[in-house]
Amino acid sequence: MPLPFFKYHPDPVSTGSIKPSADVCACCRQARGYVYAGSFYTAEEKPALCPWCIASGDAAKKYDGLFSDDYPLREARVSDDVIREVCERTPGYNSWQQEVWLTHCDDACEFHGDAEPAELRAIEWTRANDLLQDERMDERKWADFTQNYTKGGDPAVYKFVCRHCRIVLYGVDYT
Which terminal Cβ of the chain has fewer Cβ within 10 Å, N or C? Predict the structure, then answer.
């Protein structure tokens, strides 16, 4: 059975948010070969959840939980439908602090995981401030940042792609 499609997280296996597993999903009580490995905000202990229960919204409903913080999306003023889709029916991702789902063109962006070092080094520093959310760097800081960046390290740089204009944006997360 193919994994469900998540329009805001198109490849959750490659990002590490969904992992192969023989665990039984706490929501549907089935072992479907995959479980969720990202954050889940709930008052209960984080249960093992399958991608199908995430996609249907059953997991968020059953455990009164969210897969991503809704505050950044509310601040960006995207629609409530988009907020529900991202937070209740889309695999989130692990971050050092708290994930911030980026937006563009009045919609949430697709999450594509940790940025590759080579792709960051290819960005001219004059464009970096337009592509990095809430980061302001001069040429020297950008050169140091990209020289020392390692995928999955600290700081983390998360890649997002606008679903409409396909611009690539990056979120930076420090420990």
Answer: N
The partner residues of 157 in beta bridges, in order of sequence, read 172
- Do both 79 and 17 map to the same domain? yes
- Supply the pLDDT for residue 133: 59
Tell whether omega for the bond before 47 is within 30 degrees of 0, i.e. cis.
Answer: no
Q: Measured between alpha carbons, how far is 93 from 17 in angstroms, rounded to an integer?
A: 6
Q: Please give the DSSP secondary-structure letter assigned to residue 17.
A: S
Calculate the CA 107 to chain-centre distance: 14
Q: Does one domain contain both 140 and 83?
A: no
Distance (Å, whole) CA 110 – CA 12: 11
152 plus 117 within the same structural domain: yes
Q: What are phi and psi of 117, to 5 degrees?
A: -55, -45
CA atoms of 10 and 66, how far apart (whole Å): 18
Task: Count how many domains the chain has.
Answer: 2
Residue 17 belongs to what domain range?
1-94
Asked whether residue 102 is assigned to any structural domain, the reply reads no
